[in-house]
Amino acid sequence: MNLSKSKYCNGIQCKKMLWLDKYKPGEKEETGNETVLENGNFIHEIARYLFGQHINIDFNEDLGEMIKNTMLTIESYRDVIITEASFDYNGNFCSVDILVKKGNKYEIYEVKSSTTLKDVYVKDASYQYYVLTSLGLNVTKVSIVYLNRNYVRHGDLDLNKLFIQIDVTSMAEEMNDQVAQNIKDINKYMENETEPNDDIGEHCFTPYSCPFFRYCSRALPENNVFSLAGMSYSKKVAYYKKGLYRYEDLMNEKLKEDYKRQMEYELHDKEDYIDLEKIRGFMSTLNEPIYFLDFETYQIPIPLYDGLSPYSQIPFQYSLHILENGNLTHKEYLAESGIDPRRELAEALVRDIPTNVCTLAYNMSFEKTVIRKLAAMYPDLSEHLMNIHDNIHDLMIPFQNRWYYTKDMHGSYSIKYVLPALFPNDESLNYHNLDLIHNGSEAMSSFADLASKTKEEQAYIRERLLRYCELDTYAMVKIYKKLKKI
User: Which pLDDT value is given to residue 6?
Assistant: First the structure.
């Protein structure tokens, strides 16, 4: 098995993950780990300048070329900083994010897009230490470089404040023999010609979600412990290990009422539960005109504008449906790409929403957070923005409190579950019928990439963004009317 540092880390999480990736790649599903990789690539581009001028080893599908170019660079300079320096020892390949050469001494810097130090990062760096030291290089320092969540940008980007460096040299040295043993174990495991019968467990979710979990758990009944909404993976695994994974078995356990309700409704196909008095009380707090509001935001690891930290939410779009005397109107805002959209969006918001009106959001904490940050950023708009903030109501409450519950919500009160449960046959509310953009993650990535597209592509993507966000608030209107009718 030819290993890379990512394959090594996958292998120590679960060797069967590597086996399936090689022999049954068609069973792999998307897990969201792809976004982590994209962020990592973006961070590496920035972190390369952390120590100043450097020489980058360009990617080549022929890894031998990268290794050869690395050795030529090392031999040509006494002191040099190399990014993506590439090495191979007995089929164990790695590209070091930043390699600092000082005479005959080498320093490894492993760059991560996270704002926290994780154990798997140390294992990643230890694998690189093993490869380089096995080749005879004198590695005197191994460090993890990750983002400082407390950094706030003011003016030019300060890389020394943006990144935190943690020395893990002693840990890498202590783990060297273990890395060698792990590689042997992985290679022996990969010699299996028939599929290994490894059981599922916490390793399926930690440190990363496994893309083969659905495949490995295919023998479980449809209603099983891993389908319970809101329960931690560690608790789910603990019940599974006890043999308590069917809903029928779990009903006798001491579980939260929410879990029991989900199981009971799905097992017995129970009728919808509706607490009319509680819903009436909630609806009495809402007065027309009602402004149904939904924001779209995007996050990137590097703060692009003043006042932002790594992974700050940047609002770039909103949809607003207005219901008054039975009449429904719609307003919307979508920022141009490549600019700081916050001021313009805030100005549009105070134009579109008057003071002292009822604004309705689904999971209002998100909308409130966006508005609070805008109010703090722009004092001249603060009073109006905070008036909007203080008059927001949350359409999620009846579902969060289980005043309205159906088996088709599967224990969740997310609008993505509530909506199809309330309107199972309404194709106008089906996000799958939209073109290109079907969820918030796709909206986020589409807008973030907009500046790199042609004018024609941008126009198409912008229209798709508008229609997606419009459906979010239209869906809220439909839910509100359903509750009102009840």
Answer: 94
Count CB atoms within 10 A of the CB of residue 379. Answer: 8
For residue 270, give every residue at least 6 positions away whose Cβ sits within 8 Å of its Cβ, in sequence order, or none.
Answer: 264, 407
Q: How far apart are CA 421 and CA 459, in angstroms?
A: 33
* CA 388 – CA 355 distance, rounded (Å): 6
Is residue 264 within 8 A of residue 402, CB to CB? The reply is no
pLDDT of residue 24: 96
Give the pLDDT score at 39.
63
Residue 462 near residue 334, CB atoms below 8 Å: yes
**Contacts of residue 199, Cβ cutoff 8 Å, sequence gap at least 6:** none
Structure confidence at residue 40 (pLDDT): 64
Peptide bond into 379 cis (omega under 30): no
Give one DSSP letter per residue of 60-92, joined into a string.
-SSHHHHHHHHHHHHHH-SEEEEEEEEEEETTE
Which residues in the chain show pLDDT less than 50?
none
Which residue in this structure is represented by tokens 């002292």? 356
What's the pLDDT score for residue 451?
87
Residues 83 and 97 sit within 8 Å (Cβ to Cβ): yes
Please, which contacts does 10-13 make with residues 24 or more away whose CB atoms are closer than 8 Å? 11/182, 11/186, 11/189, 12/123, 12/182, 12/186, 13/120, 13/203, 13/206, 13/207, 13/208, 13/210
Reduced to 3 DSSP states, what percent helix, strand and coil does the chain have, rounded to the nearest 5? 50, 20, 35
Q: Where are the alpha helices (DSSP H) in 251-363?
A: 257-268, 276-283, 342-352
The angle that helices 5-13 and 176-189 make with each other, rounded to 10 degrees, is 80
Residue type, 180: A
pTM of the shown model: 0.90
Phi-psi region of 66 (alpha: psi -120 to 50; beta: other; left: phi over 0): alpha
